[in-house]
Amino acid sequence: MSALTAFGRATARRRPLLAAVAGLALLASAAAVASGPASAATTSKVWGAPVTYGTVVSIDDGDTVVVRVDGDDPTTVAPVHVRNAGIQTMEKGTCHAAQASAAMAQQAPVGKRVRMSLSNPAMSSLGRPVRFVDAWNGSAWVDTQLPMLKAGHALPMPGAGGDTSRWKAYEVAAQQAAKARTNLWDTDFCGSGPSQTTPLRTWVNSDGNLDESKDPNQEWVRVLNTSGTALSLKGWALRTGGQDSYFFPSTAVVPAGGMTTLFVGTGTNTTTRLYWGSAKSKFSNTNGTTVPGSGVYLYDPQGDVRAWSMYPCLYACTDPLVGKVTMTAKADAPGTDATNLNGEYVTVRPAGAYSVDVSYRVMSAFGHTYEFPKGSVVRPGELLVLRSGTGTSTRLTRYWGSATPLLANAGGTAVLRTPENVRVGCIGWGTGRC
């Protein structure tokens, strides 16, 4: 156990409900990233270059340090409140906040020399310059954000400020801490919350079947309850890796053995179908290698993160179906593809004498996605067919719902994956390669 982890565990664990909810609201507003400095700090040299240096004079909280910037006139320019890039910690007065502040104070203590850098020096958050802050240890510059993620004191902010130079290392660190259930990832760190033993899962559909920039409801977040008892979401909140928070209405419920879906766009709420009300998409699409993804984090009223999903998966990435399915594809439909859409299809079957349940896995091809619904079980000897066009779905025949051909005759790939981008199966044809 690291010193940071030990400190977090030894500190008081419970915070009042109102403080937890208020903290999430502060977090949602305080984290917004934009371009351009606030007038109070426009004269600081930190705004004029992608790399500057200075000395720490104090710590605001777990993701903001106060720095006297080299070259600033101390008689006219105040120390600058620098927002750490790539991480998000909880706000003062809420669960996890004290631990995060103390941990950052260890990484960047008063008097420590620091380097502040970002590819776009104009990026700001509530007037604070957004920067990676590295501390000098006597022989090298040491990342102050990475230990916060490793110790479970912060959520990752992939591609913060448009600078993607560190996103993979940060994502891996956060996913390792989550796997170990350290600090933020300890689901009862803040005290036993409502329905503490209820098994919950959440995930995001970041890459919609259609263009989510035109229809934000192509993006959604699922919350799945596999217990036999319904769960009220009154007082619960959802955060993303993109600095957004959603506060569930008091009527929201996750049914026993069922799920609730939060759509990013607009619509009429029910108890299980909710709408964020956004006019634009919220989740980045990732290619799993060079383009950052994001995440969703479900907070209970105590301030505990009860369920989460980070994509793409970069650590301990597996799925029970890996190696258990065989796929085929029919790209060239009989006749004309445009008039025989259902002649295009992808199939999935068990690779052995066993059943496979592909529920909630995603089929991706040519920028289109299809999420298999609950109950998508394929038994030994059976074939599950996903056809490109429209029709009435049955257990073994599903329809993508496209009005145009999806599978290029010349070649391509269809990938069966988890929402976290873990590949379960793949089929390539023609020029396509898995």
Any overview of this molecule?
A hairpin with a 5-residue loop joins strand 19 (294-299) and strand 20. This protein folds into 3 domains: 3-185, OB fold (Dihydrolipoamide Acetyltransferase, E2P), CATH 2.40.50; 200-311, Lamin Tail domain (Immunoglobulin-like); 325-430, Lamin Tail domain (Immunoglobulin-like). The protein has a 5-stranded mixed β-barrel with strand order 2-3-4-8-6. The chain has helices at 3-10, 17-30, 97-107, 145-150, 167-180; strands spanning 34-35, 51-61, 64-69, 80-84, 87-88, 113-117, 123-125, 128-136, 141-143, 155-156, 200-205, 220-225, 231-232, 237-240, 245-247, 253-254, 259-263, 273-275, 294-299, 305-311, 325-330, 345-350, 356-357, 362-365, 368-371, 377-378, 384-387, 397-399, 411-417, 423-430. With 434 residues, it is mainly beta. The model is unreliable at 1-19 and 26-30 (pLDDT under 50). 45% of the residues are buried. Helix content is 12%, strand content 32%. It has 5 helices and 30 strands.
Please describe the topology of this protein.
Elements: H1 3-10, H2 17-30, E1 34-35, E2 51-61, E3 64-69, E4 80-84, E5 87-88, H3 97-107, E6 113-117, E7 123-125, E8 128-136, E9 141-143, H4 145-150, E10 155-156, H5 167-180, E11 200-205, E12 220-225, E13 231-232, E14 237-240, E15 245-247, E16 253-254, E17 259-263, E18 273-275, E19 294-299, E20 305-311, E21 325-330, E22 345-350, E23 356-357, E24 362-365, E25 368-371, E26 377-378, E27 384-387, E28 397-399, E29 411-417, E30 423-430
Parallel strand pairs: 4-8, 17-18, 27-28
Antiparallel strand pairs: 1-7, 2-3, 2-6, 3-4, 5-10, 6-8, 7-8, 8-9, 11-12, 12-17, 13-16, 14-15, 14-19, 19-20, 21-22, 22-27, 23-26, 24-25, 24-29, 29-30
